[in-house]
Amino acid sequence: MKVSKCSNCGGSDLYRSVESTPASGRLGPDLLPKLPTGRFRVVVCKTCGLTALFAQSVDTEALGGPAWERLSDNARGPLGLTEA
Question: Do residues 17 and 42 lie in contact, with contact meaning Cβ atoms separated by under 8 Å?
């Protein structure tokens, strides 16, 4: 994982979680459904607080199939935000 500067403020005082964290919880949605580990590494900018979630390589390699839609194949609009 290569992160050198914050995309929000340009700061370089970034911190990454030592352990991965589950992408699903008791009170929220499963953010990485049907993937091998379903876990994130978290990166936080100490300057502005921007937080980014990075899926593990084993999960990104498993993307595809019926649970995931490739955006470059989706001509319906930007990220599906207009869908109900």
Answer: yes
